[in-house]
Amino acid sequence: MSSNKPSIPKGTRDFSPIEMNRRNHIFFTIKKVFEQFGYQPIETPAMETLGTLLGKYGEEGDKLLFKVLNSGDFLSAVTPDDLREGNATRLSTQISEKGLRYDLTVPFARYVVQHRNEITFPFRRYQIQPVWRADRPQKGRYREFFQCDADVIGSDSLINEAELLQIADQVFVQLSIKVVLKLNNRKILGGIAEVIGHADKITDITVAMDKLDKIGIDKVNEELSARGIDALAIERLQPIIQLGGSNAEKLEQIGKVLAESEEGMKGIAETLEVFRLSEIMGIQSPLELDLTLARGLNYYTGAIIEVKAADVSMGSVCGGGRYDNLTGIFGLPGISGVGISFGADRIYDVMLELNLFPSATASSTQVLLVNFGGKEEQLSIQMAGRLRTLGLNTEMYPDNAKIKKQFSYADSKQIPWVIIIGENERTTGTYILKNMKTGEQQTTAPEMILSHLLKNL
RNA sequence: GUGGUUUUAGCUCAGUUGGUUAGAGCGUCUGAUUGUGGUUCAGAAGGUCGUGGGUUCGAGUCCCAUAUUCCACCCCA
Length: 457
Fold this sequence. Notes:
Blueprint: H1 17-36, E1 40-41, E2 47-49, H2 50-53, H3 58-63, E3 67-69, H4 80-85, H5 88-95, E4 96-100, H6 105-114, E5 123-132, E6 144-153, H7 158-174, E7 179-185, H8 186-195, H9 202-210, H10 212-226, H11 231-241, H12 247-258, H13 262-281, E8 287-289, E9 303-309, E10 318-323, E11 337-343, H14 344-353, E12 367-369, H15 374-389, E13 394-396, H16 403-412, E14 417-420, H17 423-428, E15 431-435, E16 441-444, H18 446-456
Parallel strand pairs: 1-5, 7-8, 12-13, 12-14
Antiparallel strand pairs: 2-4, 3-4, 5-6, 6-11, 7-9, 9-10, 10-11, 14-15, 15-16
Helix pairs in contact: 1-7, 1-14, 7-13, 8-13, 9-10, 12-13
The chain binds one RNA strand through α3, β6, β11, α14 and α16.
């Protein structure tokens, strides 16, 4: 033992085999659905230049960026005066020019601009990679986590929005997670802010409204007031804050308030259309309009999507929306995109909490051959080869250990079948196949074992 | 970034107002069972009590610092 225990950075995790099998199950499911909808994979570097990253996620986001120290003599550009001043932000730009990616959307926007001549629009891509945020860790909140993004860029059609909802629906149906799909629209929020005469306060209004369930209507109004919304405006907001009924009813009520806002009415029309298309697509999960969704308000311009797991207290497991001009920042204006992002780690946590992982994900080995050494070992190795040729995941126990130990090994790895080729089997030419679940075993010719396994796996 | 919380065996946790050699369950290993796992029985190994200081005759227990976990705020997958 070394004197100090090794450790990993705060908010990061190791993944052991059983966890990886489960995680791969999630990734595989998401990937499969993405591909069924025609999305193609890309990957981008873990690091981006800070120029790409900074200023895209708001002031808060910039603080949460992991910056990478320049290689070599990174202090060469720094003067003693800079150090004395202690301006951390300025100093950081002198000693660091790269950062770890914060999400997959901004790198994708960068990618689209950089590869615009190779891309056929509309371009549907998916991307499953880790992202890093220097956030304070909590349950379901890590400093390194995987996002699974699907975006379509270069199409204004609302079919894309509805299709992303359908993708989310299918992923969670296939993973057996009950979810609620939530939809909002930046234009509706903008319209509300405009109509009450506080066009610049969209965020403040939404943040306050979001707390209705937690703190009640009176406190929400207090908070609105504290955030600089005048009494008349708050008065006009009341029917919107206390909105109820079905999605259609809600939209109708909002429509009355927003009648004089062109932007707001456009948002309502868009939302109605997305609901209509979703119905045609036959989405199974409940889909509801939720005006308090403020996620990604920095760059979303139309629909805002969020998915929450039912029956579990966890942040959202999936989020997304429409951004009309994300590539504009990188010099390619006028291209609209819409995307969705699955939080694989949170999905994992939800599934663990709800006991949703199939037991089959515990091990991938299907057959174990017991090792008796000598001539028997040779036969076992050959048998293992034949099994693999037939497509069975097969393990040969590497040592001539006690049989009991080899069986315990199979048991702990939950390997369903064990084949025994010992001295008796070698002389008779018949091998033993044991079913580890039932405990039954049979002694037959190798060919019979092969066909029996093929039938039963 | 602000306030709080957690940390004792591989895992989950006990440990009294500070007082001999820090415990349990599960897991691991060995044997009962020299060609058979999951059940049972017997036994064993495994801890400088997160780390570093301090107070004390004496610290797992009290104080300070630091790391980590989780929670609220902020924000977010």
